[in-house]
Amino acid sequence: MSDDYEIRRFTAASKGEAGFPDAESWLQAVAFGFHESTRTPEHVAKSLETYAADRRIFTGAYQTREVAQGSLPAEVPVATFGTFRKTLNIGFGRLLETQLVTAVTVRTSHRRRGLLRRMMSEDLAMAKHDGVAMAALTASEGSIYGRFGYGVASFERTVKVDTTSRFQLNHQAAGSVDIADPPVLLDLAPEVFDRVHRLTPGSIGRQEWYRQLASGSLGRDGKEDPAIKVVLHYGPDGAVDGYVSYKFLGWDTEPHTVQVVDFVAATNEAYLELWQFLAAIDLVERVTWEEAPLDDPLTWALADPRCIDSSDSRDMLWLRILDVVKALEARHYPVDGRLVLEVLDPLGLTGGTFTLEASGGQAAVVRPDTPGTPDLTLDISALASIYLGGVCPVTLTAAGRIREHKQGASLQARGMFAVERATHCLTHF
Ligand SMILES: CC(=O)SCCNC(=O)CCNC(=O)[C@H](O)C(C)(C)COP(=O)(O)OP(=O)(O)OC[C@H]1O[C@@H](n2cnc3c(N)ncnc32)[C@H](O)[C@@H]1OP(=O)(O)O
User: Fold this and answer.
1) Same structural domain for residues 146 and 133?
2) Ligand 1 proximity of 116 Cβ (cutoff 6 Å)
3) CATH number at residue 180
4) Are residues 204 and 82 in the same domain?
5) Fewer CB within 10 A of the terminal residue: the chain, N end or C end?
6) Is 294 annotated as contributing to ligand binding?
7) Which domain holds residue 97?
């Protein structure tokens, strides 16, 4: 394979910069890989401007031999792999730098020749070499990434909420809401999100595009979105502490429906009061949201929790630990304890036996000189799954994903890896 392809890495470039033509071809390949319509030159330029702001690194596999007559030119990569770095909230307000992997595509005519394996293995090794202890992605299919050591660490669900008279919240409003001109979110959205990010285990720092999406400045089709409406929530001190960006789906949609585009609330009150607002919109009988948490306070605040129809829940964030010692020592532990973990790593990046000793919230992690019998044996992907407290080690033991050598060690791990509130990630990338 190595003779047929050359792997190139370069930084995202905006229009007018030297690297723009390469970035443009790379993006064209990504759009093709995800079955999108060919993007207009304006859409490409706008997308690349946001990618440049994220300082994304583009990796592409290029054909080294002459391309077949009439086929796409050699400048268009046959495989793509994008990365950028943001922080991950790992519980109790701690943020860990994380390598975000995105835009993974391999052209159908070049698939199953090891291009994904090569790009993934090389990229994870380079990120580790840079001192990054964690990588993350969201997956198109559940069967691809476990083999590279990724494990599911958070979930989300689509909700359809009945907002007719059936919707009654047991909540006394403490703040207020009002409608805003959508472009205000260009400045406000990152500020409010930053508060949510620091509060929510599993949250990933957002890319530049989010504020543009929420404000209607750049929709998924590359154009402004005039359908976007925005409501702000003000706390008792008058400061904005939440917002919802939403769209009415039209009079032909039955029941009349509002679709949430982005829902960001930095306090419990803001969350419930923004729901109260959505439920109060006249002539609307249903509100849908595709990125709702599984463990949702709304369920428990409703007089009739069956207002929420939610048959569609799915994995969201997949994590890959690149450095066990660094990742485990970065966490806060709510319970003191000692665990000996035997960690198996299919890529050989960070496997071994580790003693995790947590005391007063801090942890020391060492590789014992003479590893005896561990308390738990687990794959690096299972360790990633329990890392944010969003997946229960006892359940993974029941599934055979964790082997418990000391009785009760999985339950002990559950307590040690617990986080202060439900794990949830509002950032798709
Ligand atoms: C983070 C993201 O961007 S998620 C989006 C992922 N991309 C897509 O879904 C777009 C459509 N699919 C594709 O472009 C390609 O099929 C890819 C990227 C999924 C796979 O690329 P390939 O170069 O064919 O993968 P490669 O040949 O390196 O295979 C590596 C391993 O993964 C396995 N694999 C690859 N694709 C899949 C799949 N869809 N389902 C299950 N296993 C898979 C291969 O069998 C191989 O296994 P092994 O090495 O353990 O024997």
Assistant:
1) yes
2) yes
3) 3.40.630.30
4) no
5) N
6) no
7) 5-154
Say if the ipTM goes beyond 0.90: yes
Active site residue 429: yes
Please give the full DSSP string across 109-156, using - where no structure is assigned: GGTTSSHHHHHHHHHHHHHHHTT--EEEE--SSTTSSGGGT-EE--EE
Query: Would you say 141 is a known binding-site residue?
Result: yes
Task: Residue 142: name the closest of 12, 6, 318 by CA.
Answer: 318
User: Would you say residue 96 lies in a domain?
Assistant: yes
Q: Are residues 80 and 210 in the same domain?
A: no
Residue located nearest, by CA, to atom 37 of ligand 1: 144
DSSP 204: B
Is residue 406 domain-resident? no
Q: What is the pLDDT of residues 179-234, one digit of tens each?
A: 999 999 999 999 999 999 999 999 999 999 999 999 999 999 999 999 999 999 99
Q: What is the pLDDT of residue 233?
A: 98
Q: Of 107, 129, 154, which residue constitutes the final position of a domain?
A: 154
Residue 158 belongs to what H/E stretch? strand 155-162
Return averaged pLDDT per consecutive 10 residues of the chain, 429 residues in all.
90 97 97 95 96 98 95 97 98 98 98 98 98 98 98 98 97 97 98 98 98 97 96 98 98 98 98 98 98 98 97 96 98 98 98 98 95 95 98 98 98 98 98
Tell whether 12 and 136 lie within a shared domain. yes
Residue 350 CB contacts under 8 Å (≥ 6 apart), including other chains: 128, 321, 322, 323, 324, 343, 380
Residues 112 and 183 in one domain: no
Do 160 and 309 reside in the same domain of the chain? yes
135 within ligand 1 shell (Cβ under 6 A): no
Supply the residue whose CA is at minimum distance from atom 35 of ligand 1.
Answer: 144
**Ligand 1 centre from 252 Cα, in Å?**
40
- Express each pLDDT in 18-55 by its tens digit: 999 999 999 999 999 999 999 999 999 999 999 999 99
Pocket perturbation via mutation, ligand 1, pick of 113, 117, 120, 123 by most ligand atoms within 8 A of CB:
117
User: Is 155 a known active-site residue?
Assistant: no
- Whether the CB-CB separation of 364 and 399 falls below 8 Å is answered with no
| Residue 33 beta carbon below 6 angstroms from any ligand 1 atom | yes
Q: Which helix (H) or strand (E) holds 218?
A: none
Cα 19 from chain centroid (whole Å): 28
Give the count of domains, the chain: 2
Ligand 1 atom nearest residue 82's Cα: 3
